[in-house]
Model the fold of this input.
Amino acid sequence: MQNNQEITINGEVYVPKASLAAPTLNGMEYCMVRTYSAGVFAGYVERRHGKEIVLRQARRIWKWAGEASLSQLATDGTNDPDGCKFPVAVDRVILTEVIEIIPMTGKAKKSIDEVPVWTD
Done:
């Protein structure tokens, strides 16, 4: 999926370097966070202590489609937003037993933000 921030040269898609940087909010980095038993979330890491994280503006990544792994989702975003199920974001969540933290690109955050809120 190509957007107006990308350019294709000889079949290769290029994006501006700024879109690859992890978005920040008041010094907090936007990350994909996988926990042992609570699932996966995307949000701003406010604080980390051992395996515990406080995540702000956190959206649960209940089901994703269009990418093979969380690493790819955190880098490229989804190319199948209709196949994703992401509930509404919460202002703050404390996650324990965090096992993976992946900084997200601006492109990926934009993609996550554009997935409609799942309400079923």
Notes: Helices lie at 70-76, 106-114.
